[in-house]
Write a structure and sequence with these properties.
The protein has nine helices and two strands. By secondary structure, it is mainly α. The protein has one domain.
Length: 188
């Protein structure tokens, strides 16, 4: 996976459900971890079973595997980190319909060997975690005056734009702009 060709970085593909939970770095990490594990495990399972899947059953199998992994992630999160599960629950369910997860299953895991599929999914998952953190950290600092829930000694005041959901899209837009400008990619 090359960063200059990564759709998550250039177009924010696949992170819209996750971007809603970037008010705090801890929620961004938790959501990113669930996305990372879902992408990696679904790629592993689809790649392992790719020869048994027909053209007619492949998409159904991919969706079923993703839904199963997401359901397991919700159960584990509820069992071990209930407060975070309450916060993330509506958004974790949206991972089952995440276009990036399904896209990686269809375009890589269903066609490649296990090691290639898992590496591709893990790389894309890691990029999502980093993007979510890059959005969450400035939002938490500027919008809440804290980082990882710890109050900062120097306060920027609480900027309500950064605390609001629109702040996530503002930061995401800046990230895309910086990456495109650095890579020489046209911003049309």
């Amino acid at each position: 996976m090359m960063l200059h060709k990564n759709d998550t970085l250039h177009n924010l593909i696949g992170i819209c459900p996750a971007i809603a939970v970037t008010s705090f770095a801890t929620t961004a990490i938790a959501m990113g971890a669930v996305l990372f594990l879902t992408m990696t495990l679904s790629a592993l399972l689809i790649s392992l079973t790719r020869s048994a899947l027909t053209q007619r059953t492949r998409l159904v199998a991919q969706v079923a595997v993703i839904v199963l992994i997401v359901a397991c992630a919700q159960i584990v999160l509820r069992a071990y980190w209930y407060d975070m599960a309450k916060t993330l629950s509506p958004y974790i369910a949206l991972i089952a319909a995440n276009c990036l997860t399904l896209h990686r299953c269809e375009n890589c895991a269903s066609r490649e060997k296990v090691n290639v599929a898992v590496a591709d999914a893990a790389g894309n998952g890691l990029v999502i975690v980093l993007v979510l953190l890059a959005i969450a950290i400035p939002r938490e600092i500027i919008g809440g005056g804290s980082i990882f829930g710890i109050a900062l000694p120097v306060s920027f005041g609480k900027n309500m734009l950064m605390a609001a959901p629109a702040g996530a899209f503002f930061i995401a837009g800046i990230i895309v702009w910086v990456i495109r400008a650095a890579g020489g990619r046209k911003t049309a």
